[in-house]
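Milestone M4 deliverable, item 7.
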Amino acid sequence: MKTDRNMLAEHGTELMVLKPSSLLQAARADIRRRQRNASKAHDGDLSFEQFAFHRAHVRKAADEQDLLVRALMQPGPGLASAKYNTRLIYSNGELLLKAIHLAGEKA
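Output delivered:
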């Protein structure tokens, strides 16, 4: 049985319109999650908060702008993700580019 999300996606209807500021916020949140996960693991807490972006990109990124650049330049891992929202982020290069520019303005 298909979910509403799958049916809407198949028929070309966007479920939500993402904005560059939304991607920038998601990148910032992933950098914070990475730090939180590392800190908690160091303390013996093995709980893990999942990332919006691909984990390999989050782990290597110096900051949120670097994370956005990695997503734009290497979309393959994100497009192959099992997570729908991650695939959605990586599928729109134009939106990623706008988010990169926004991050540069706010730096």
